Task: inverse folding
């Protein structure tokens, strides 16, 4: 693995010292933290984009003897590796954000749900938490504030993509199969062990740390009106400079491709396997909730790539990772993969492929959780945006 | 009745993680790590001490790809099969590993040293092809480099 590197950015990768956000939080109090978060218009950085201040306010308002803060570090979306960089290189942001979360909502326990594939970082993260305890940034009466008790433990996942879905993650933490729950009730009221729980992405906590220190108004100076602040993009595929980039929301795909030095780009998959694949004609689109929302995965494919092969890889992923609980997702993904294989063999009719696209639309509505609701995205967008390559290739449809 | 060492080991894990249902995954992970699988007997013992049905334990094991109920090799090698590793040369790395070990993906070497599997996205898309050897990650693999890493495994 490559060594740590110095990164620069306007928000996440800007100047920050461990404990800054916790010190500020203690001095300004809960109400002001919630106010600054609301001002910032921060939306969850896992991909779904739910307003963070609303989530925290609901958990703070819930009455219970116990509450939890969970950091969702089950980063499993193909093409996404920003959380790996944050956890390895900026643990102070993530953990400080969690402590601020605990203080704000009134939780004493924080849990990092770290994907099993990242077990190699467990020791360094635990050592870091120990340092925070020594500095009284974790533990009892944090920074001398009476009654401000909060500690963090790390729990490992065991190789299941669906556990990145927050209710499946909670099921996993409770010792069950990682199967999504029906909602409502929502975790803010009935989460881990039936208690109010706020579940946020690694990058969300990192953003909170900066917002608390520098204010919501400062945060809004970056990005667009509906997508404030900056975003970490994990860029991979056909480009000279893959890696994690901090860019303001509103950056166009073309601008991003220039930054990472991508040449002869044919397609960009935005949002990972569960996102959409756009062709060259749409590269002027903007990254942001008003246009191309994403958890951060950007995969670049150049002219030499076979888009049907790309699609097949994605559908194999979903067939393998569907938890199997609900029929639209379990059977639907299998059918979509079969469809791709039919096209590959040249044994298809357009009538049937269109039926499969309709099936994809049904899956989006009828699936129980985000996995089945988003897995048809790549199927529909690749077959639609690259139909000339896939169907009119001069080989009678065969590849 | 004299308890065997596995029972004692499981009871120690229960002491460490607690008797609640939420301790199930950490306990299973610890048993998997040490024995490379969770045997029928281990499943029954875990079920007994946590006071849940053995079928529940089996259900959890079969859900997670890093937990297994059938013996594996002493080392588990997982090559990332996601598209970014794929376009960076996963296939030639996979072919080289299979040739060198004389097994296919999903199989274990005769000497029980290595079990070879695919993994879905290891989060190393910027540095592919990547593989996990137990819990260590290796990136920027070439066929030669991958085989060399595997040759150093004990």
Result:
């Amino acid at each position: 693995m490559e060594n740590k590197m110095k990164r620069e950015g306007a928000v996440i990768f800007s100047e920050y010292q461990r404990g800054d956000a916790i010190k500020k939080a203690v001095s300004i109090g809960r109400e002001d933290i919630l106010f600054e978060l609301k001002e910032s218009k921060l939306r969850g950085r896992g991909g779904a984009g739910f307003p963070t201040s609303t989530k925290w306010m609901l958990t703070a308002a819930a009455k219970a003897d116990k509450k939890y803060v969970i950091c969702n570090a089950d980063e499993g979306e193909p093409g996404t590796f920003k959380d790996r960089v944050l956890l390895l290189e900026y643990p102070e942001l993530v953990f400080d954000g969690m402590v601020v979360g605990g203080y704000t909502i009134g939780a004493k326990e924080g849990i990092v749900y770290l994907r099993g594939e990242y077990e190699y970082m467990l020791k360094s993260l635990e050592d870091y938490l120990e340092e925070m305890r020594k500095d009284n940034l974790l533990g009892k009466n944090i920074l001398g504030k009476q009654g401000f008790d909060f500690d963090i433990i790390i729990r490992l996942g065991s190789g299941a993509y669906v556990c990145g879905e927050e209710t499946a993650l909670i099921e996993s933490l409770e010792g069950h199969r990682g199967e999504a729950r029906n909602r409502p009730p929502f975790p803010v009221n009935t989460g881990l062990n039936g208690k109010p729980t706020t579940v946020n992405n690694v990058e969300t906590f990192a953003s909170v740390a900066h917002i608390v220190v520098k204010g919501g108004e400062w945060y809004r100076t970056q990005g667009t009106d509906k997508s404030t602040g900056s975003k970490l993009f994990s860029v991979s595929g056909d480009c000279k400079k893959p890696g994690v980039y901090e860019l303001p929301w509103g950056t166009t795909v073309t601008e991003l491709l220039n930054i990472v030095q991508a040449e002869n780009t044919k397609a960009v998959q935005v949002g990972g396997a569960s996102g959409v694949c756009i062709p060259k004609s749409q590269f002027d689109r903007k990254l942001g909730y008003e246009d191309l929302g994403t958890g951060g995965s950007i995969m670049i494919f150049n002219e030499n790539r076979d888009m049907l092969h790309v699609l097949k890889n994605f559908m194999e992923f979903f067939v393998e990772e569907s938890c199997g609980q609900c029929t639209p997702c379990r059977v639907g993904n299998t059918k979509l993969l079969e469809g791709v294989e039919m096209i590959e063999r040249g044994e298809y009719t357009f009538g049937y492929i269109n039926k499969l696209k309709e099936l994809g639309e049904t899956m989006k509505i009828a699936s129980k959780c985000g996995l089945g609701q988003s897995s048809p995205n790549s199927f529909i967008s690749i077959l639609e945006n690259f139909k000339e390559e896939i169907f009119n290739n001069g080989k009678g449809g065969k590849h | 009745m004299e308890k065997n060492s596995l029972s004692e080991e499981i009871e120690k894990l229960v002491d460490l993680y607690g008797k609640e249902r939420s301790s199930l995954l950490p306990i299973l992970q610890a048993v998997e790590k040490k024995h490379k699988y969770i045997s029928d007997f281990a499943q029954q013992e875990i079920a007994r001490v946590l006071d849940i049905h053995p079928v529940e334990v089996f259900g959890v094991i079969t859900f997670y790809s890093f937990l297994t109920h059938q013996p594996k090799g002493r080392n588990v090698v997982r090559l990332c099969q996601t598209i970014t590793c794929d376009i960076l040369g996963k296939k030639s790395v996979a072919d080289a590993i299979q040739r060198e070990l004389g097994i296919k993906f999903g199989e274990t070497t005769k000497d029980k040293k290595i079990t070879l599997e695919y993994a879905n996205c290891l989060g190393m898309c910027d540095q592919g092809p990547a593989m996990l050897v137990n819990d260590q990650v290796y990136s920027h693999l070439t066929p030669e480099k991958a085989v060399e890493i595997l040759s150093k495994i004990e």
In short: The mean pLDDT of chain B is 96. Chain B touches chain A at residues 20-26, 28-29, 59-60, 63-67, 81-84, 86-87, 119-128, 132, 135-139 (CB under 8 Å).
